[in-house]
Amino acid sequence: MQPLKVGVIGVGRMGQRHCRVYANLRRAQLAGVCDANAQYGRQVAQQYDVPFYADVDELLANVDAVSLVTPTPQHFDLAMRCLALGKHVLIEKPITQTLAQAEQLALAAEASGLVVQVGHIERFNTAYIELKNVLENMQVLSANFRRLSPTEGSNFDVDVVLDLMIHDTNLVLDLMGQEPTWVSAHGLSVFSGTIDHAVAQLGFATGQLITVTASRVTENKIRSIDVTARQSYVECDLLNKSVLLHRHTIGEYLNHNHRGVKYRQESIVERIQIPFFESLFLELQHFVDCVLEGHPSSVAARDGLQALRLVDTIRADILRQLVVVDAQAALPAQPAAPERVLAR
């Protein structure tokens, strides 16, 4: 079987990662790149010894599929052009800039018969995959998703809900298999003029309560999912690739040498073995396999639409009551210490 000829549109930081993986992926051939910055695009093309195309249509004429790694406002028009020319497309998240665009693109993708995959990369995180396996036969009661980042190095093109929390809205919808029946969200604007710290609570018809926190004002990078199930408590670290399963056991009374009765309660912690694979490698391999084998992606355009719809609901609730933190404001006054009276 001939390898799939793939092009990359947009070769910024993330686009270059796509190029690196495609250049080493089985059953795929990096066949060209395209970027609005011709000088920069040519440098990347030279690095991977592939053609540079200044025109998108010229690239599309020479490939079977593309990764679309451009700024979000360009996603809709470029993805629709790819579909019109019969090209399979992987679109980095979020799927589009607006809900209306996402709805139109999802319908077009489903009607085209082409593979359209959205780049919700955490779905291919091996820790998340194992977490789903662990929870398969458990009754989930609640979960806490945390995606925290330091200020330095954060993306300020969009607010923290669109930049970070959208990863977890997709994971929540995938894990629960349904959309929430109610949403309550609050947020802080600390330095960007928009949402920098957000907390959302999601309720489901089946009773589960999910909390999702995203922040770019913390000095510690955290990517975690903690799940309370009826049978156990599960800690998943997406960043360090670990899953810990806390189980309880039945206590027992012990009688040693007739010296008295003791009670012992044991709690077992299981460390689940996590295979180490780069999430982007698994994501792009899945895309290539779907195209060559003719089956739909597990992260299709409608998944991207649903994640964006939930994000839109969360953002709207936050913006109605967004708290702006004034850096110049005085700290709350501390109560005066009571006067000490010495006894005579």
Give a written overview of the molecule.
By secondary structure, the chain is of the alpha/beta class. It folds into 2 domains: 4-119 and 282-297, NAD(P)-binding Rossmann-like Domain (Rossmann fold, 3-Layer(aba) Sandwich); 123-277 and 306-324, Dihydrodipicolinate Reductase, domain 2 (2-Layer Sandwich), CATH 3.30.360.10. It contains 9 helices and 17 strands. The strands form 3 sheets. The chain has a 9-stranded mixed β-sheet, covered by helices on one side. Strand 2, helix 2 and strand 3 form a beta-alpha-beta unit. Helix 5 (99-112) runs antiparallel to helix 9 (301-319) and helix 7 (160-176) packs across helix 9. Mean pLDDT is 91; it is low at 330-344.
Sheet with most strands: 9 strands, mixed
> What global shape is seen?
globular
Tell me the series of helices and strands, N- to C-terminal. Answer: EHEHEHEHEHEHEHEEEEEEEEEHHE
For the biggest β-sheet, the strand order reads 16-13-12-11-7-10-9-8-17
Structural class: alpha/beta
- For the record, the count of structural domains works out to 2
Helix content: 25-40%
Return Rg in Å.
25 Å
Q: Beta-strand level of the residues, as a percent range?
A: 25-35%
Q: Which stretches of 5+ consecutive residues score pLDDT under 50?
A: 330-344
Number of strands: 17
Measure the end-to-end span: 98 Å
In short:
With 344 residues, the chain is α/β, with parallel strands linked by helices. It has helices at 13-22, 38-48, 56-60, 75-84, 99-112, 126-135, 160-176, 279-293, 301-319; strands spanning 4-9, 28-34, 52-53, 65-68, 88-92, 116-119, 140-148, 182-189, 197-203, 209-215, 222-229, 232-237, 242-248, 252-255, 261-264, 267-272, 323-324. The chain has 2 domains: 4-119 and 282-297, Rossmann fold, CATH 3.40.50; 123-277 and 306-324, Dihydrodipicolinate Reductase, domain 2, CATH 3.30.360.10.
